[in-house]
C-alpha cells in the first residue's frame, strides 16, 4: 500500500465509475506515481489510457500526453469531458486561439486542465511549446509524460512515425519527470528499441498476455483466381457472417477495388478503404460501416489505428500480412467486445513468395516475416501456440478451447472450401 492508494481507489470508483482494475493497471499507476519510467504493453482494448488518466488527477500539475493521431486525441478528450475531467489538445488543425490557450495552460498555475494532449512534432517544431514546457517544469507543475502508441518510435514496429524520434530528448531535458510509454506491440525487439530511443534503458516493462481467447483463427486455401476468391468471400459474407460486421484486408489498392467491385456485383454491401482516397471519402466509408450500411470494408492496411468498432465479428485476410506483428494487429481488430469473432486467412504459396520478395528487397523484418510463414505453413500446432511463441509467451495448449482450425481437426485441417460443411462444423 502507498500513501496514494486510497485516492487511487476512490478516483477509480467515483470519477471513472470502474469497480476493479484489470491486470497490470494498478502496477502501472503505482510505478508512475512513484516517479519511475515504465512501459505498459497490453493488447488494444485492454485499458492503457486509465494508466495515465487516473494518476493525472491525483496531484496538482499537468500530464502531457503524446499521441500520434488527431482522431485518437479527439476520442480521448470526448471521453474525458464526459467524466468532467478537464483536458485539452494541441495540434496542427487546432485554431490559433485554441493553441494559444493550450500554450497558456503550461505556464498558468491557476488552470484546471489536468491532461494536455499533443502530437510528437510539437517537441521538435515549436519553440514556444518547448519554452513553455520548460517553464512548466521549472514551476514544478510537469507531472509526467505519457507517450501513447510508443512503438511508433521504432522502425521495427508496424507503424513507425519519424516525429516520435524527437521524444528521446525528454528524459535528458526533464530528468525527474517520469515517462509512461504505452503500446499494443509486444515484440521484445521493438520494446528494447523503444527504450533505447527514449533513453530509458532497462525501465520497468509491464506486460499482460496477448492471448485473445475469443478470437477463432483459421487458414483457408486461397483459390488461384480472383473469381475463385470472390466465390469464397461471397459465401463467407452471405452465410457464415450473415448480418455481421467485418473487415477484409487486401494487399494492394488495386486488389481492394477489384474485390469490392466484385462483391458488390454479387449483391453484397461493402465499402472500400485505402490511402489514395481523400480523407472525406474515407471517413464516410468508415461511418457507413459503423451504421451497418456496409457489412464489410475491403481495405489495405491504411485502415488501422483508431478503428473503435467493438462488434467486428470477422477479419478476413485476402492476402497474408507482411509480418506476424502486422497480422496480430490487423486480426486483433475483431472481437473487442469480448464475444466470439473469427480471423480467417486465405493462404496460397505464391503470396508467401510475393511478401518475402517485398521484405527482402526492403531489407528488413526477416524474423517477423518468418513468424508469418510459420503461422501459414503450420498444420500441426495450435495456432494460438504459434502466435504465443512469436510473442515469447506460453498460453498453454489447453487454453485454445477449439478456437482454431488445427484444434478442431487435429489430424487433418480442412482447407478446401466446402463451405456449407464448414458452416456446420464451426
Ligand atoms: P487501450 O488504449 O489499451 O486500447 P483503452 O484505454 O482505450 O484501451 O480502454 C478500452 C476500454 O476499456 C475503455 O472503454 C475503458 O473505459 C475500458 N476500461 C479500462 N479499464 C477498465 C477496467 N479496469 N474495468 C472496466 N473497463 C475498463
Ligand atoms: Mg489506446
Ligand atoms: Zn488451437
Explained architecture:
This protein is an alpha/beta fold and 426 residues long. It is 41% helix and 15% strand. Helix 13 links the parallel strand 12 and strand 13. Helix 2 packs across helix 3, helix 5 packs parallel to helix 7 and helix 15 runs antiparallel to helix 16. The chain is globular and about 65 Å long. The structure holds adenosine-5'-diphosphate, magnesium ion and zinc ion (ZN). It is found in: Nucleus. Keywords: ATP-binding, Coiled coil, DNA-binding, Helicase, Hydrolase, Isomerase, Metal-binding, Nucleotide-binding, Nucleus. Its EC number is 5.6.2.4.
Give me the secondary-structure topology.
Blueprint: H1 5-14, H2 25-33, E1 38-41, H3 50-56, E2 62-66, H4 70-82, E3 87-90, H5 96-107, E4 115-118, H6 122-125, H7 127-138, E5 142-147, H8 170-173, E6 179-183, H9 188-197, E7 204-207, E8 215-221, H10 226-240, E9 245-249, H11 253-265, E10 270-273, H12 279-290, E11 296-299, E12 312-317, H13 324-331, E13 341-347, H14 349-361, H15 366-377, H16 383-390, H17 405-408, H18 419-425
Parallel strand pairs: 1-6, 1-7, 2-4, 2-5, 3-4, 5-6, 8-13, 9-11, 9-12, 10-11, 12-13
Helix pairs in contact: 2-3, 5-7, 15-16
Bound molecules: adenosine-5'-diphosphate, magnesium ion and zinc ion.
Keywords: ATP-binding, Coiled coil, DNA-binding, Helicase, Hydrolase, Isomerase, Metal-binding, Nucleotide-binding, Nucleus
Main location: nucleus
Family: Belongs to the helicase family. RecQ subfamily.
Question: What low-confidence regions span 5 or more consecutive residues with pLDDT below 50?
Answer: 421-426
**Overall pLDDT:** 91
Straight-line N-to-C gap: 48 Å
Number of strand segments: 13
Give the overall shape, derived from the CA principal axes.
globular
Bound molecules: adenosine-5'-diphosphate, magnesium ion, zinc ion
Class by SSE composition: alpha/beta
Order of strands, widest sheet: 3-4-2-5-6-1-7
SS element count, helices: 18
Share in helix: 40-55%
Beta-strand share of residues: 15-25%
Q: Sheet bearing the most strands, described?
A: 7 strands, parallel
What's the gyration radius in Å?
23 Å
Amino acid at each position: 500500500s502507498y500513501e496514494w492508494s486510497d485516492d487511487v481507489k476512490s478516483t477509480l470508483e467515483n470519477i471513472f465509475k470502474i469497480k476493479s482494475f484489470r491486470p497490470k493497471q494498478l502496477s502501472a499507476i503505482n510505478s508512475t506515481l512513484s516517479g519511475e519510467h515504465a512501459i505498459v504493453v497490453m493488447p488494444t482494448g485492454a485499458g492503457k489510457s486509465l494508466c495515465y488518466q487516473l494518476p493525472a488527477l491525483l496531484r496538482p500539475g499537468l500530464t502531457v500526453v503524446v499521441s500520434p493521431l488527431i482522431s485518437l486525441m479527439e476520442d480521448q478528450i470526448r471521453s474525458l469531458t464526459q467524466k468532467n475531467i478537464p483536458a485539452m489538445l494541441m495540434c496542427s488543425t487546432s485554431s490559433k486561439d485554441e493553441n494559444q490557450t493550450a500554450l497558456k495552460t503550461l505556464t498558468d498555475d491557476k488552470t484546471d486542465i489536468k491532461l494536455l494532449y499533443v502530437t510528437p512534432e510539437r517537441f521538435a517544431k515549436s519553440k514556444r511549446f518547448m519554452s513553455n514546457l520548460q517553464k512548466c517544469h521549472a514551476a514544478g507543475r510537469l507531472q509526467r509524460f505519457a507517450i501513447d502508441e510508443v512503438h511508433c518510435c521504432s522502425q521495427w514496429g508496424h507503424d513507425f512515425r519519424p516525429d516520435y524520434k524527437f521524444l528521446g530528448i525528454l528524459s535528458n531535458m526533464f530528468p525527474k519527470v517520469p515517462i509512461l510509454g504505452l503500446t499494443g506491440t509486444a515484440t521484445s525487439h521493438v520494446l528494447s528499441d523503444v527504450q533505447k530511443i527514449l533513453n530509458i534503458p532497462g525501465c520497468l516493462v509491464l506486460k499482460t498476455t496477448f492471448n485473445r481467447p475469443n478470437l477463432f483463427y483459421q487458414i483457408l486455401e486461397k483459390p488461384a483466381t480472383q473469381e475463385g476468391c470472390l466465390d469464397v468471400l461471397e459465401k463467407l459474407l452471405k452465410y457464415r457472417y450473415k448480418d455481421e460486421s467485418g473487415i477484409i484486408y487486401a494487399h494492394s489498392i488495386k486488389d481492394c477495388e477489384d474485390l469490392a467491385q466484385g462483391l458488390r456485383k454479387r449483391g453484397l454491401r461493402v465499402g472500400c478503404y485505402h490511402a489514395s482516397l481523400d480523407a472525406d471519402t474515407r471517413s464516410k466509408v468508415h461511418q457507413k460501416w459503423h451504421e451497418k450500411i456496409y457489412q464489410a470494408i475491403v481495405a489495405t492496411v491504411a485502415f488501422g489505428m483508431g478503428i473503435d468498432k467493438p462488434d467486428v465479428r470477422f477479419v478476413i485476410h485476402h492476402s497474408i500480412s507482411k509480418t506476424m506483428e502486422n497480422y496480430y494487429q490487423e486480426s486483433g481488430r475483431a472481437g473487442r467486445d469480448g464475444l466470439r469473432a473469427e480471423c480467417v486467412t486465405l493462404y496460397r504459396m505464391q503470396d508467401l513468395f510475393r511478401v518475402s520478395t517485398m521484405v527482402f528487397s526492403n531489407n528488413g523484418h526477416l524474423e517477423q516475416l518468418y513468424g508469418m510463414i510459420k503461422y501459414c505453413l503450420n498444420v500441426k500446432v495450435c495456432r494460438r501456440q504459434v502466435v504465443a511463441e512469436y510473442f515469447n509467451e506460453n498460453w498453454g495448449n489447453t487454453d485454445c478451447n477449439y478456437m482454431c482450425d488445427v484444434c478442431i481437426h487435429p489430424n487433418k485441417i480442412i482447407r478446401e472450401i466446402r463451405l456449407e460443411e464448414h458452416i456446420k462444423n464451426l
